[in-house]
Specification:
Blueprint lengths: L7 H19 L17 H12 L5 H15 L6 H17 L2 H26 L3 H83 L3 H29 L17 H12 L4 E7 L9 H21 L3 E10 L2 E9 L13 H12 L3 E8 L5 E10 L2 H6 L1
Parallel strand pairs: 1-2
Antiparallel strand pairs: 2-3, 3-5, 4-5
Helix pairs in contact: 1-2, 1-4, 2-3, 2-4, 3-4, 4-5, 4-6, 5-6, 6-7, 6-9, 6-10, 8-9, 9-10
C-alpha cells in the first residue's frame, strides 16, 4: 500500500521546527535538567521524531498524534527542548482538524481527562501549588490545542454545510426557473396556436377555393372571408405581442375569452366552414351558465375553438355539434364532427392542437378524450370530449 505524500506546507513546518530546535540545542537552551538521560544528543531524538510527525500531521493525523505523544513523553526523560513541546501542540491541533470525525470528537475529552488526572496526581504526590502549575502546563500543551482544533473544525463543517445548502438552493432555484420557462413557453405556444390557427386555416381553405374555382362570386366571397380572418388574426397577434413584451406601450391586453363568447365564435366559424359543407350547431344544456372559474371558462372556450378549427381542416361535409353541459362539480364539453374523406381544399395539421387541449385539461385535473366513435345511426364521427372540475380546487387556482 502506497503511503500518502506529506503536504508541502507540512514538510516546510517540519523542517523549520527541526531547525529551530537544533538552534536551541546548539546554544544549550533546555527546558529542564537533571533527567534520566542527561546526554546532549538524547534531546535530539524526540525533536527529530516530533518533526517527522509534523510532516504527517495532515495525511496521517492519528498516527502522528500517537507517535508524537510517545515522543513528548520521551522528551521528559531528557533535558527537553521547547520546540518539541510547541510542535506537539500543533500535532494535537491537526489531529482534531484533519482526523476522522470519531477521533476529532474523542481527542478533546481524552486530553481534558489527562489534564485533570495529571493535576490530581501531582497534587496528591507533591501536595503543593507547583502541582497546579504542572496541570496548567499540561492543559496548555494538550487540552487547549485540542479545543482550538475542535472549534476550527466545527466552523469549517458549518461553512461547508452552508455552502452545500447554498448550492442546493441555487440548483433548486435553477430547476424552478427552467420549469417555469418551459411552462410559460408551453402556455405561449397554446395561446398562439389557439388564437391564430383558426384564422389561418380559414384563410388557407378559402384561398385554395378561390384559386381552384373560376367563379367571380365564389372568389369574391372567399377573398372577403380571407380579409376578415387576416385582419382579425393580425389584431390577435398584436394583442399577444403586447402581452409578451415587457413594455410595449400598447393598450391593455384584452380580457381572456369566456363561454359567453361561444355564440360569436360558432357564428364566425360557420361562415368560414360554409364552403366545406359544414353546418355548425351550438347546444348549451347548462341551467346556470354563470359562476364558473375563469381558468375553466378559458379552457372550455379554447377546446371548442380548436375543435372547430380541426373540423374546418379535416371534417367531411355534415353537422358539427358543440354541446356544453354541467354536472355537480364538473363542466363537460363535447364537439362531434363527421369523420371521413372530405372533398375540396383542406389545410395541413401538425397535431399540436390535440396536445394543447390535453395540456389545458391536465392543468385543471380534468379528463380529455379525442378519437373516432360510431353514433346511434352507425355513422362514424370524430368526437372531442373534456370534463373540467369546477370545485374548490379550481376556484383556488383563480
Amino acid at each position: 500500500m502506497t503511503l500518502p505524500r506529506p503536504h508541502r506546507f507540512d514538510l516546510l513546518m517540519a523542517f523549520l521546527g527541526f531547525a529551530c530546535g537544533l538552534l536551541l540545542w546548539s546554544f544549550g537552551l533546555y527546558t529542564t535538567g537533571d533527567r534520566v538521560f542527561d546526554q546532549r544528543w538524547a534531546t535530539l531524538i524526540p525533536l527529530a521524531v516530533m518533526a517527522s510527525m509534523v510532516a504527517l500531521r495532515r495525511t496521517m493525523p492519528l498516527t502522528a498524534l500517537n507517535v508524537g505523544t510517545l515522543a513528548i513523553v520521551g522528551d521528559q526523560f531528557t533535558n527537553g527542548n521547547l520546540v518539541t513541546v510547541l510542535m506537539f501542540t500543533d500535532v494535537v491541533y491537526a489531529a482534531v482538524v484533519y482526523g476522522q470525525p470519531a477521533s476529532a470528537r474523542r481527542i478533546p475529552y481524552t486530553t481534558g481527562l489527562i489534564t485533570v488526572a495529571v493535576t490530581v496526581g501531582f497534587l496528591v504526590w507533591w501536595q503543593n501549588a507547583v502541582a497546579l502549575l504542572i496541570g496548567v502546563i499540561t492543559g496548555m500543551v494538550s487540552f487547549m490545542p485540542a479545543m482550538t482544533g475542535a472549534v476550527v473544525r466545527n466552523h469549517r463543517e458549518a461553512a461547508e454545510a452552508a455552502r452545500l445548502r447554498a448550492e442546493q438552493t441555487a440548483l433548486l432555484a435553477e430547476m424552478d426557473r427552467a420549469q417555469a420557462v418551459v411552462a410559460e413557453r408551453a402556455r405561449m405556444a397554446r395561446e398562439l396556436h389557439d388564437m391564430v390557427a383558426n384564422r389561418l386555416s380559414a384563410i388557407a381553405i378559402h384561398s385554395t377555393a378561390a384559386l381552384s374555382l373560376d367563379e367571380p362570386a365564389t372568389t369574391r366571397q372567399a377573398l372577403t372571408v380571407i380579409r376578415e380572418n387576416s385582419v382579425a388574426g393580425l389584431s390577435e397577434m398584436r394583442r399577444l405581442i403586447g402581452i409578451l413584451r415587457d413594455s410595449s406601450g400598447d393598450a391593455e391586453p384584452a380580457a381572456s375569452p369566456t363561454l359567453a363568447g361561444l355564440d360569436a365564435l360558432v357564428n364566425q366559424s360557420a361562415v368560414n366552414a360554409e364552403p366545406s359543407g359544414l353546418v355548425l350547431v351550438l347546444d348549451d344544456t347548462r341551467k346556470d351558465p354563470a359562476g364558473l372559474p375563469a381558468p375553466v371558462e378559458l379552457a372550455a372556450y379554447r377546446i371548442v375553438q380548436e375543435s372547430l378549427t380541426n373540423a374546418l381542416k379535416h371534417a367531411a361535409p355534415g353537422e358539427v355539434r358543440v354541446t356544453l353541459g354541467q354536472d355537480p362539480g364538473a363542466l363537460w364539453v363535447r364537439v362531434t364532427s363527421p369523420y371521413g374523406e372530405r372533398p375540396g381544399p383542406t389545410a395541413p395539421g401538425s397535431g399540436a392542437g390535440l396536445v394543447g387541449m390535453r395540456e389545458r385539461v391536465a392543468l385543471l385535473d380534468g379528463v380529455f378524450e379525442a378519437g373516432a366513435v360510431t353514433d346511434g345511426e352507425g355513422r362514424k364521427r370524430w368526437r372531442v370530449r373534456a370534463e373540467l372540475p369546477v370545485g374548490a380546487n379550481d376556484e383556488e387556482r383563480t
